[in-house]
Amino acid sequence: MRGPALCPTARAREPLLAEFIRFDRITKFYGPLCVVENLDLGIGKGEFVSLLGPSGSGKTTLLMMLAGFEQPTSGTILVDGQAVNDVPTHKRDMGVVFQSYALFPHMTVGENIAFPLEMRGLGKAEIADRVTRALDMVQLSAMRERRPAQLSGGQQQRVALARALVFEPRVVLMDEPLGALDKQLREQMQLDIRDLHRRLGLTIVFVTHDQSEALTMSDRVAVFNKGKIEQIGTPRQVYDEPATRFVAEFIGETNLIEGVVARISGGEAAVRLASGAEIVSAVSGGVAEGATVYLSVRPERIELAEARNAAHNCLETEVTDSVYQGDHLRVELAAGSHPLIAKLGRRSREFEPGTKVFAAFSAGDCRVIAPPDGQRQAAAS
């Protein structure tokens, strides 16, 4: 095995290098149906990028095109500067982990992991050495002689991961690999995969529909909707600064408040609600005065008080429901015609329905969602 790639003590990965993978104007049709439309995306060497979106949004199709299982209708896929559209799957040097694990049931754990090495014609001694190190990496050395049916779901997933890594691929592709696991095991595997990524410096492209999973594991998240990327950024960026209504609603839970931009000044917009109240919000561009917009406020950013406080924004509301959910208290509110949700600390007082309270949040915790292109152009004209 060349170098320390599978050594658990390998040093933490270096900062991201130059772009390693490039999707250049990729379009994919299945008959008349367009599933990926004119998509551009670059991924750095050593980067962990999650393709996040609902079923049918195009994320898995893009991954399958990168793996070579599907061909783009148009556009070019480049890896390390070389086009791979016409390169067969087995020559792309990519490890793939599927949700179904795809382990051979008649083989032992060790034989499953050794299989891709045997297909590459490595010698027995080197295969044995690589399999040993791969098993150590995923902490399954004691399971070497067991068959997949004798393993738990989490252990099978570790075997599938070891098999994808043992031949030291230049890219690891994962398609919903944790979807079949229970919540506790899935969360542990998320941390384990993130740790392997950091220790080994892997380039990982990860497909998921689970927002929490993408936020936990990724360097960047590409949010897919109807064959396009609506936003790409760090987990904090896509959560705290959603660029579209879809992103705001798909990633986590949010409050969307409709209003009209009254004025813009110094990176903030004053948005007038139907009630006449104004909310001051952070704005990142693309919004004109007079435009109809939505304001996105995460429930955990809202504080409740019996009297107005010094926060930038303070809406008079009425409690409609209050539910204790263990780690937080979920409070449903009505602010005129606008329903709101607040998530308070677990030790917060519970509110009876009908209680009048003020919902307060800062301008920095409230984001203007840019209007659709038609509205934006009309407002600017």
Automatic annotation (TrEMBL):
Top-level enzyme category: translocase
E.C. number(s) listed in UniProt: 7.6.2.11
SMART domains xrefs: AAA (SM00382)
SUPFAM superfamilies found in the cross-reference section: MOP-like, P-loop containing nucleoside triphosphate hydrolases
Recorded catalytic activity of this chain's protein: ATP + H2O + polyamine-[polyamine-binding protein]Side 1 = ADP + phosphate + polyamineSide 2 + [polyamine-binding protein]Side 1
GO MF annotation, one: ATP binding
Any Pfam family hit: ABC_tran
Keyword vocabulary terms for this entry: ATP-binding, Cell membrane, Membrane, Nucleotide-binding, Translocase, Transport
Domain ABC transporter: from-to ranges: 21-251
Subunit-level organization: The complex is composed of two ATP-binding proteins (PotA), two transmembrane proteins (PotB and PotC) and a solute-binding protein (PotD).
Function as written in the Swiss-Prot or TrEMBL entry: Part of the ABC transporter complex PotABCD involved in spermidine/putrescine import. Responsible for energy coupling to the transport system.
Protein family (similarity comment): Belongs to the ABC transporter superfamily. Spermidine/putrescine importer (TC 3.A.1.11.1) family.
Name of the protein in question: Spermidine/putrescine import ATP-binding protein PotA
Species in which this protein is naturally found: Shinella pollutisoli
Gene field: potA
